[in-house]
Amino acid sequence: MIFWAFLGFVGVVLFTLQLASVIAATWRCKPRPRNLSLPDPAPAVSIVRPLCGIEAFSEDTLRSTFGLDYPAYEIIFCVQRGNDPVVPLVERMIAEHPGVPARVLVGDDPISANPKLNNCVKGWNAARHDWIVLADSNVLLPRDYIQTLLKPWDENTGMVISMPIGSRPQGFWAEVECAMLNTFEARWMFAGEILGIGFAQGKNMLWRRDILENAGGIAALAADLAEDAAGGKIVNAAGLKIRFVDMPFEQPLGPRKGLDIWSRQVRWARLRRVTFPGYFAPEPIAGAFVPLLLIGVYVYAYGYNPIAFVGPFAAILYAAEMLLAWRAGWFLNWASPIAFLVRDIGFPAMWTTALLFDDFTWHGKSMSVKEAVPRSG
Fold first, then answer.
1. pLDDT tens, the chain, 377 aa long
2. Which domains does the chain have, with CATH numbers?
């Protein structure tokens, strides 16, 4: 019976860590009005947005780039092909906002196996300012976007990032993706930050040009398949810190299919497996499935109904997640606990798939985590 008692003890410990991470993120997320004042001085900033096709909320997310409450910034949209359907949309927006310096750059610089990074190279090289933001096309920028990114910067900072917060889901599977992005991934990133473990996340990355140039320029981000992983390693090697914004930015989701979510999450997990294997290995215990399973096995071994015990533990954890989402102003509705449950049941299978298989598809390109990444000479 010592073995079963040990399993129960481990389950309770892991459950406690889960709950502690939710509490930590709830403490870290402090909602405020989106009206941060300008820093003094307010440095000029270049925003580089790589584009590829039209997405569900492209009109909203790309238009938000032109409405920033900041006195000196430029926008550089990057596309790999001139016939991309997003080009007319962006050109129309540029014409509608003649007071905002903006341009579209077309072309591809194949410095890596990462299509997004290849698309960003020309934008980085063309940026006029020393503060440069790499911002994905599907991120909705609030009016104080630049101020929010600049706020955490100090002399020990090498990069400021914002993880994506899923919003505007349409359908249950989109709500599951909100559960993955918000009260799971963002929650653990905030908890890790409190412990001094900061990871880069490629949705929004604010760089000071000299930091990346000292490491070899934007080509240095080709050192890993994921440009954010390479950037994080550059910052850490320089003895600097990765900071998070106080209020992460929205990624409107729209409709989602279960297979799309599965493919995307497995792809990210595979990339983590090869870029940060030490952190990838214990990921299964970051979800609720393992601790709840261990608690259930323990009580079943002693002849009790596992559901009668596991149910209250799950209710406590999911109630805490709902409190986090409510406090942070993230998506929340009556079906959220069901989305949490589906996420936690599927997470071990996603991790196992990422562990056992190497191939994936990225922007329509078949790839493998075993690919050698070309580096510029």
1. 788 889 889 999 999 999 999 999 999 887 889 999 999 999 999 999 999 999 989 999 999 999 999 999 999 999 999 999 999 999 999 999 999 999 999 999 999 988 999 999 999 999 999 999 999 999 999 999 999 999 999 999 999 999 999 999 999 999 999 999 999 999 999 998 888 887 888 999 999 999 999 999 999 999 988 899 999 999 999 999 999 999 999 999 999 999 989 988 998 898 888 888 888 888 988 889 999 999 999 999 888 898 888 999 999 999 999 999 999 999 999 999 999 999 999 999 999 999 988 776 666 666 677 664 433 33
2. 2-26+275-365 (no CATH), 34-258 (3.90.550.10)
291: left (phi over 0), alpha (psi -120 to 50) or beta: alpha
- Residue 204: other Cβ atoms inside 10 A: 24
Which residue type is seen at 230? A
CA nearest 197: which of 368, 357, 24, 41? 24
Contacts by 352-360, CB closer than 8 A, 24 or more apart: 353/266, 353/269, 354/266, 354/269, 354/270, 354/272, 354/273, 354/280, 355/273, 357/270, 358/270, 360/263, 360/266, 360/267, 360/270
Type of residue found at 205: M
Q: Name the residue type at position 150.
A: L
pTM greater than the 0.70 cutoff: yes
Task: Say if CB 162 and CB 203 are below 8 A apart.
Answer: yes
Query: Peptide bond preceding 41: is omega within 30 degrees of 0, i.e. cis?
Result: yes
**Contacts with 173 (C-beta within 8 Å, 6 or more apart), sequence order:** 256, 257, 258, 260, 261
Sole residue written with tokens 């980085």 = 124
Under a CB-based contact definition with an 8 Å cutoff, are residues 263 and 361 in contact? yes
Largest CA distance in the chain: 74
Report the distance separating Cα 262 and Cα 336, nearest Å: 18
**Residues sharing a CB contact under 8 Å with residue 35, sequence separation 6 or more, in sequence order:** 69, 143, 144
